[in-house]
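Hello,

Our lab assistant flagged a job as stuck in the queue for most of the afternoon. It eventually completed. Since we weren't sure the result was trustworthy after the delay, we are filing this so someone can double-check. Below is the sequence as submitted and the structure that was eventually returned. Let us know if re-running is recommended.
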Amino acid sequence: MALGPHKVWCKMGNSHSFGHHRALEYAESGHRRDPRWSVVRRWVEWIGTATIFVSIGIVLAGLADRRAPFAVLGSSVPAGAPGERVTLDMTVWRDVNRGCNVTAYLTMHHSGGVRYSFPPMPMSAELIAEAERRNPGRIRHEIDIPANAVPGAEAYLTVERKYVCNKFQAMLLPIVVTSIHPVVVRQP
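-- returned structure --
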């Protein structure tokens, strides 16, 4: 079917370029009826669909790795007066072979629910491995008991560790390990 210049101009949206005219003529020449194009189109669709499913599988596999690389096996009960520095000594298990980075968030709850948060403590996988070599199975946190803590009232330290063992956990969902440790606030 031959088109006059006015029909090509209308169908191309007021385009006068030579390439667009050639594309329209090729499209109208009947190549859509060629069975090879439908096979190619199906293959492209199949490859696109397979790529999407494989990508989703890779992300889910990365997020499915939820095994914690750390566990607290036991801990001391630190005791001190308000304003004093005390040491929380823990016996721990670390999986240093996975190469996980961690950020620890320490929060002290005291005097009927008052909360005091310490600055986050990030550690790379290399620092964790070095700490395990120097002090195998042990961790020590030095904390200051807040000056406004009431002696004799219940107090505890919450340590939340967010582990990142792969890039999907870094982007979406880190592994969270939380431990709660009692603290004794003594009279000054």
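-- support follow-up --
The delay was a queue issue, not a problem with the job. The result is valid. Residues 5-64 form one domain. Helices lie at 5-11, 18-27, 35-64, 125-134, 167-171.
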